[in-house]
Specification:
Number of strands: 15
Bound molecules: oxa(dethia)-CoA
Distance between the termini: 15 Å
Helix content: 25-40%
Oligomer: single chain
Shape: globular
Strand order of the largest sheet: 1-7-6-4-5
Length: about 350
């Protein structure tokens, strides 16, 4: 038994921000960003939520697959930037789609989330009686996680969503092999702090005495109602959200991407050269180029959308897969590799037959 991809979809926010546009925000240039990363533009969600983007990508994937929302049994959403801590992003997308028969939950494996989510959905389709079709979706608003004063990181990321419809099948088609890998991030090379780090009415000794006065003072000074002041004491970020040691992440990525893809090919019993298309995590064109060289594959085999999207974290592989399919690059029967890496540290690869 296996599970195969029936359809794909993706969604980008309306606002397109070029490298030149960004040079008005931080001290950077189109030349630096393009040369070091391959990124030319990214899309920023000003009005769109992660739910809007996720729902839109899923609707396109459902349409591509010829499946109704009511026929979906499972939704796995991978995200590090959900609209809410709870309900899950998957639950919000489920409601937006009207996928009334779906079991749903989120999964966070940072930028490798796509591979983890696909593997999880594939496994559940094999083992849960009655589960036949899944939506696997990555939806990210990285623009809300980056520090817009840090030029070394803010220029890299973008917003977007990508989705696939996965269906259990009786033959050994679709997903052939999956490799998931974790290492401790001992040097804190990639981290995004939680949002709920603001005023907290407790100390290690107990309730903080001054909290009530502070809230009252804040209310007076800001012309806020007490309810507004109380609400604003939670969910305040007091530290840069996304912190990254770029060179260390680069080293990790260039080491593990070829490793996991090779392992997944070995597990599937196919040669790396037999992969017609590889869909890598879209973090940096130079990382992808390095991985291609290490695997002995021409760079043209690796499908990229990074020029237009930047790094959309766990949505990036699904978005690139959708682009490749719509561009006619993926034909039935071909072997496809998908691979990602990210904070955690996480890495993974999937090999499937289209
Ligand atoms: O999804 C996973 C997330 N992350 C990644 O995959 C990131 C992996 N790492 C990378 O892609 C690269 O390390 C970066 C693209 C982030 C940086 O490239 P780099 O070649 O490692 O540059 P660097 O950090 O060593 O910086 C080189 C120079 C520095 O100036 P000095 O010290 O040489 O004078 C930086 O201050 O470039 C400067 N710099 C910039 N200049 C213009 C850093 N960011 C910028 C910028 N514009 N945006």
């Amino acid at each position: 038994m296996g599970s195969r991809i029936l359809g794909c979809g993706s969604a980008l926010p309306a606002l397109r921000v070029t490298n030149d546009d960004l040079s008005r925000v931080v001290d950077t240039s189109d030349e630096w960003i393009a040369k070091r990363t391959g990124i030319r533009a990214r899309h920023i969600a000003v009005e769109e939520t992660a739910t809007d983007l996720g729902v839109s990508a899923c609707q396109k994937a459902l349409e591509d697959a010829g499946v109704d929302a009511g026929q979906i049994d499972l939704i796995v959403c991978t995200t590090g930037t959900p609209d809410a801590l709870f309900p899950s992003q998957a639950a919000l997308i489920r409601a937006g789609l009207g996928a009334v028969n779906a079991v749903c939950f989120d999964l966070n494996a940072a930028c490798a989330g796509c591979v983890y989510a696909l593997t999880t959905a594939h496994s559940l389709l094999q083992t849960m009686p009655g589960m036949r079709r899944a939506l696997v979706v990555g939806s990210e608003r990285m623009s809300r996680a980056v520090d817009w004063t840090d030029r070394a990181t803010c220029v890299l990321f973008g917003d977007g969503a990508g989705a696939v419809v996965l269906e259990r099948c009786d033959d050994d088609q679709g997903v052939l092999a999956s490799v998931l890998k974790n290492e401790d991030d001992v040097d804190d090379v990639l981290r995004a702090n939680s949002l709920y780090a603001g005023d907290f009415p407790f100390t290690a000794e107990g309730v903080a005495e001054r909290t009530a006065e502070q809230i009252a003072a804040q209310s007076e000074a800001g012309g806020q109602t007490m309810e507004e002041a109380l609400a604003s004491t939670t969910c305040v970020g007091d530290a840069p959200l996304l912190l990254m040691k770029g060179r260390e992440v680069f080293k990790f990525a260039t080491r593990v991407m070829p490793e996991v893809l090779q392992e997944a090919c070995d597990q599937a019993g196919v040669a790396v050269e037999d992969l017609a298309v590889v869909i890598p995590h879209q973090a940096n064109e130079r990382i992808i180029s390095y991985a291609a060289k290490k695997l002995g594959l021409p760079l043209e085999r690796f499908h990229m959308v990074i020029q237009e999207t930047g790094n959309t974290s766990s949505a990036s592989v699904f978005m690139a897969l959708d682009d490749a399919r719509r561009a006619g690059r993926i034909q039935p029967g071909q072997l496809i590799g998908m691979t990602g890496f990210g904070a955690g540290l996480t890495a993974g690869a999937v090999v499937l037959r289209a």
